[in-house]
Amino acid sequence: MSEHYEKHAEQVTSAFLELLDGDVRARISDEHRQELAMLVEAAISTAVLEQLEHAADQVSALSQSIRHGAEHYDKTG
What we know:
Layout: H1 3-19, H2 22-26, H3 30-71
Helix pairs in contact: 1-3
């Protein structure tokens, strides 16, 4: 995982914990906080990879379209 994702996951985790009441926040151990940050980081990574895969599919489709157009350029009308 990238350092950027890790840092963002820590920020999201901290923001979430700030929403909790102080007594609830005090009962959350560092281990649980780290586990939450890891889950957030995994979610960020999954979302980024899904979008990257979607972009790659779009590039592939465009490439095929361009190739088809080039192969059939002189064959129309």
